UniProtKB/TrEMBL annotation:
GO terms for biological process: DNA catabolic process. It comes from Microctonus aethiopoides. GO terms for molecular function: 3'-5'-DNA exonuclease activity; metal ion binding; nucleic acid binding. Residues 33-212 form the Exonuclease domain. Keywords: Exonuclease, Hydrolase, Magnesium, Metal-binding, Nuclease. The keyword Cytoplasm does not apply. This is Exonuclease domain-containing protein.
Length: 330
């Protein structure tokens, strides 16, 4: 594909450019401490507010209650036991003392620093749920970079301790943490501190060592790279909807997260024809194709780009005809 240099360069830039903050890679230190972290939130969506943040590292415990800025969803309240009444936060009907968001964030960071100069954050479903919420929370308080400089990465315990179809932490705890020392904990599951302690118990029960937790880590840099890709996908996907009739939803998502837009595809077809589409989709980045080398998919995308351009040209011609007709009548 000679002559495709500028196209390939644009493809690579669209794929690797990260507008979001991406922390530097940091090596794993010998003194890296695992810290179990959990949150209770106003709902189960990515934009949820934290109402209870807790962490456990060896014998050290941390927790902070925060007054949410949004209403607690009834289903979340039913699961967690948290509610708001008369501008006070209640847990299982009892008022709990809250601190400001700024205070909670600073206290959380101070606690993590007290554990070690480098930490590994561990949690059940933490990569998909808790970590993004904690990161947004710390970012809003201006402490994101400090958190990232301290954190080697995140380890999700679901694949490590799930037993067949049983993956929920409270179900695992009730099934395997059966000693009398655990009986009082089961009634308060979904309290963040309680959940941290239960998870520690489960890790000990299944003999999951710190070495295993560290070996299964998604590094902080990798986590933010994934976040940047998802953000890019979210931004680009709407522009690619004209191609949803010619490729699968999965392929459409792959195109979006790799920086492709409908304007780029139309432009490359207009200038280079099918070879331009091939360059956009096949260009090798880090030893892998940007999107695909599948000839059927490339042909489908090419046909769609051609139809879009043809349709736009027809629309422009009709528009010009109408303008000329209106000009003649006047």
């Amino acid at each position: 594909m000679s002559g495709m240099g500028p196209t390939m360069e644009r493809a690579i830039n669209a794929t690797i450019t990260k507008e979001n903050y991406i922390p530097e890679s940091i090596p794993l230190q010998d003194n890296c401490k695992t810290v179990i972290v959990d949150t209770e939130t106003t709902d189960f969506e990515a934009n949820a507010n934290i109402v209870h943040l807790a962490a456990v590292c060896d014998s050290l415990h941390f927790e902070a209650y925060m007054m949410p800025k949004v209403k607690i969803h009834p289903k979340a309240s039913e699961v967690t036991g948290f509610s708001v009444s008369n501008n006070r936060l209640l847990y299982l009907g009892n008022v709990v003392e809250t601190v400001s968001l700024e205070t909670a964030a600073n206290q959380f960071l101070s606690f993590l620093k007290s554990c070690s100069s480098q930490i590994l954050i561990v949690g059940h479903n933490i990569i998909r749920f808790d970590a993004p919420i904690i990161i947004r929370f710390m970012e809003e308080q201006g402490l994101l970079e400090s958190l990232c400089n301290l954190t080697f990465g995140f380890t999700d315990t679901i694949p490590l301790i799930r037993q067949g179809k049983i993956a929920k932490q409270d179900a695992l705890a009730k099934l395997y943490l059966t000693g009398p020392e655990w009986s009082s904990y089961h009634g308060t599951a979904h309290n963040a501190l309680t959940d941290c302690l239960l998870l520690r118990g489960l890790l000990e029960h299944f003999s999951i060592s710190d070495e295993v937790l560290k070996s299964k880590t998604l590094t902080t840099r990798e986590f933010f790279q994934r976040r940047a890709v998802k953000e890019k996908q979210k931004i680009n996907l709407p522009s690619l909807q004209p191609f949803k009739t010619c490729v699968s939803t999965a392929m459409l998502n792959t195109m979006a997260k790799n920086g492709l837009t409908v304007e780029e595809l139309k432009s490359e077809f207009k200038i280079h024809g099918k070879k331009g589409i091939e360059a956009c989709l096949e260009v090798q980045i880090n030893g892998k194709p940007r999107v695909t080398v599948n000839k059927k998919i490339i042909q489908s995308v090419t046909d769609c780009a051609e139809k879009l351009l043809s349709s736009e040209n027809v629309s422009k011609e009709l528009e010009n005809v109408n303008k000329n007709a209106e000009s003649g009548q006047s």
